[in-house]
């Protein structure tokens, strides 16, 4: 059975999409069948993989609202083991349209159940809000990764997403786990180091060892429509996401050993 991980934080610009795309690409590079789900109406994950939002026929919108099958809508990417379930601009209205439907928070989970045997990893990129789309991402997931930029108010925003995770655990998805907090866009300055230290102290054992540095090659690769692996494999950004994927895989392996 595959494992589904949602990348969520209601703050924009913290590195959700960069993490979703490059974690998914790094896992796929290890020849693990991986599906990346772009739940953000902005469609940045798709464009970072060279799939323009307007070119796509069929998207996660039709999966959520028209009951289309994931396997019909998912498309291949440049990486052999990586498929994409693309976003669409119609998703802007999905929050409202979903509100009137039955089991509105479980739509994505039910759709993904049909491909559970096909993918070893499903990675979900969320929009910068805690609305119904992110809720669908959390209800569909086994684990959530929260990217956090090491800046002054980082901890404040963190409380909101963790509270939402607790609500989902208390209701629609009791087995949801916080896999961890990922420190992103880490710069070489005192404030970043101080904030990182505070976060590790507050959330002992829940912060990934891997830290993603600020690296311009990561944003360049996105404007070229490529995961960093296919753009500059030697860059610090690429090497950190490969290390992060190894850390995620290691934790998954030890979690499986613990299961009865
Ligand atoms: N480690 C990094 N180094 C440099 N730029 C980054 C890094 N991570 C993300 N970025 C850039 O910062 C911006 C916001 O990142 P993004 O992943 O889109 O955040 P989110 O999805 O949380 O809004 C993007 O332009 C992206 O290219
Ligand atoms: Mg994003």
Give your account of this protein's structure.
The structure is a single chain. With 260 residues, the chain is of the alpha/beta class. The chain has a single domain, classed as P-loop containing nucleotide triphosphate hydrolases (Rossmann fold, 3-Layer(aba) Sandwich). The chain is 43% helix and 17% strand. The chain contains 11 helices and 8 strands. The chain has an 8-stranded mixed sheet, sandwiched between helices. Helix 1 packs across helix 11. It starts with a strand and ends with a helix. The site of magnesium ion has 4 residues, from helix 1.
Question: Which keywords apply here?
Answer:
Rossmann fold, eight-stranded mixed β-sheet, binds magnesium ion, 11 helices, alpha/beta, 260 residues, binds adenosine-5'-diphosphate
In short:
The chain has eleven helices and eight strands.
Q: Helix and strand layout, with pairings?
A:
Elements: E1 3-7, H1 16-29, E2 34-38, H2 44-48, H3 60-65, H4 70-73, E3 75-76, E4 82-85, H5 91-99, H6 107-113, E5 121-125, H7 132-139, E6 143-149, H8 154-169, E7 177-186, H9 190-202, E8 207-213, H10 216-223, H11 236-258
Helix pairs in contact: 1-11
The structure holds adenosine-5'-diphosphate and magnesium ion (MG).
């Amino acid at each position: 059975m595959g494992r589904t991980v949602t990348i969520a934080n209601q703050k924009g610009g913290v590195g959700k999409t960069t993490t979703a795309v490059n974690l998914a690409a790094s896992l796929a590079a290890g020849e693990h069948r991986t599906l990346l789900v772009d739940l953000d109406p902005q469609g940045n994950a798709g464009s970072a993989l060279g799939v323009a939002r307007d070119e796509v026929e069929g998207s996660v919108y039709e999966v959520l609202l028209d009951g289309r099958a994931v396997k019909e809508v998912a498309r291949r990417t440049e990486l052999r083991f990586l498929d994409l379930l693309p976003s669409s601009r119609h998703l802007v209205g999905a929050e409202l349209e979903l509100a009137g439907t039955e089991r509105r928070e479980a739509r994505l989970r039910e759709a993904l159940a049909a491909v559970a045997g096909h993918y070893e990893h499903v990675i979900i990129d969320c929009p910068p809000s805690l609305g119904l789309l992110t809720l669908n991402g959390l209800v569909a997931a086994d684990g959530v990764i929260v990217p956090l930029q090491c800046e002054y108010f980082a901890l404040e925003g963190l409380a909101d997403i963790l509270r939402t995770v607790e609500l989902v655990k208390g209701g629609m998805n009791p087995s949801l786990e916080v896999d961890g907090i990922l420190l992103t866009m880490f710069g070489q300055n005192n404030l970043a180091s101080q904030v990182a230290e505070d976060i590790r102290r507050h959330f002992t054992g829940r912060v990934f060892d891997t830290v993603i540095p600020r690296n311009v090659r990561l944003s360049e690769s996105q404007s070229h429509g490529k995961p960093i692996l296919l753009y500059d494999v030697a860059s610090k950004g690429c090497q950190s996401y490969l290390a992060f994927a190894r850390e995620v895989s290691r934790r998954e392996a030890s979690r499986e050993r613990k299961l009865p």
